[in-house]
Amino acid sequence: MSLASIENHDLTQWQSIADGISQQLETRLFVDGKHVDAIGGGRFATINPHNGETLAEMSEGKQEDIDLAVSAAKHAFKSGVWSKIAPRERMETLYRFARLVDKNAEELAVLDTLDMGKPIADMIDVDLPSVIDTIQFMAEGVDKLEGSVTNTDNDAIHMVLREPLGVVGCISPWNYPLLMETWKIAPALAAGNTVVLKPAEQSPLSAIRLAELFMEAGGPAGVFNVVNGYGETAGKALALHNDVAKISFTGSTEVGKLILQYAGQSNMKRTGLECGGKSPQIFMSDLPDLDHAVGSAIEGIYSNMGEVCSAGSRLLVDRPIYDEFVEQFIAKGQHAFQAGEPLDPSTNMGPLVDCESQQRVLGMIESGKSEGATLHFGGDSPADMAQGAYVNPTLFGDVSNDMTIARQEIFGPVASVIPFDGADEAIAIANDTIYGLAAGIWTSDINRALRLVKDIEAGVVWVNNYEDGDMTQPFGGYKQSGHARDKCMESLKSYTQSKSAWIRLTSG
Ligand code: NAD
After folding, report:
1. Which has the closest alpha carbon to 233: 505, 38, 488?
2. Is-catalytic flag, 366?
3. Which of 49, 281, 392, 496 sits at 20 to 30 Å (Cα–Cα) from 117?
């Protein structure tokens, strides 16, 4: 059922849909247009973090399965069934693909909600509309990718052609399973490449359905392959593969650095890295609307359970408004996100992705307490949700930027408020991090806003808002947040390479 028709489902409906879907989960890999078991026969469990129950035993792809999938993708690329068809034909297939994602929104929403605990309301309001937008935007770009004829020597014509790369390996995280996969596969496919996708092992279910829908839309076999499995085996084999022209990776900075090594150890493949963040929001005392700013700060850290690469986790507040900011944050933020059953459309906070994450986040909270930050609320798990990997929204005040909670990516619902005195100190604190993914600036002074936009070291800067944007906006980081740019035409172009053709003309 399409997005428009599922908006008003209630919990009972979602539960019965989820029960039906759970009975027939596809667990195999998807290679060369067919579902196949892993060659070695291995399996791994995917768990529902809301209740700890095993959803399915998935086929565990390893090196030999990656080899098979890359070989299928290479064959499909060389055959030209996708790479050499007319751009508008590729565009039409991608449009059909986007429509099929919409048509199957109900099933896709349930798969990610069961697998990683995301509230179903977020799947409907955020993830799936963005997935559809991404496929449509990249489809629209197919015949807008242009080469050029440069202005050169009168006895020559110089053309620069844009060509696809070949086989693109995509390695994705679990926090927005379908969306992060689509940010990769949509531009890669639109540019004419073929793809092998290795989804995160915590959320393997929906990728297979995505690949099936691509074929249902008319995508040829072998163009979009999915190999589920662990990062250290399947992911590594993909990144080391000599027939892979590019690895498009989204995940932790630690693994991003490994991807660079694998590229160097193998065929010098291109890499596109989208990694971690510790994004600052700077609240100047002249900000236009404190009420709105605090509301945005709450959304910016607690939505998606804080499992957002660009989460505004460091809230830098000008000392004259510090007390009022914290007071308002406590009043509004403490109960704004309530843990609940993710399939309930009224739930806005699900569990973290697994118990390991829950323990890691609780450990970070302990470090905040022991290093002297003031715990204003949260700091524990909800007592009535003990069966799942839940952590309550948490607020620390009086944080200094050298505390662990201000330096390390927590990837959970934990906000840290750091006081500062004046714009210079704010910028110094904001930039004092290895990361540089995103930042927020709140001020009424246009000159100060522009000054801060220039001085901040981040790939995405929001002024008097946080997390707004559309498909035209390049999304990616500075420093150790990576160097790729998702969404936008720059992303589409990054899945192509240029070829220069210099043609010498003879007279007459
Ligand atoms: P992760 O790095 O643990 O895993 C990401 C992917 O890499 C998974 O598919 C995993 O199986 C794979 N992987 C792990 N080890 C590997 C290896 N040795 N070789 C090849 N692949 C390997 O990250 P995660 O926990 O899934 O995701 C959370 C991280 O992702 C956070 O740091 C978050 O900030 C980041 N993230 C960044 C963006 C962005 O756009 N910048 C978006 C979403 C998430």
Report:
1. 38
2. no
3. 281
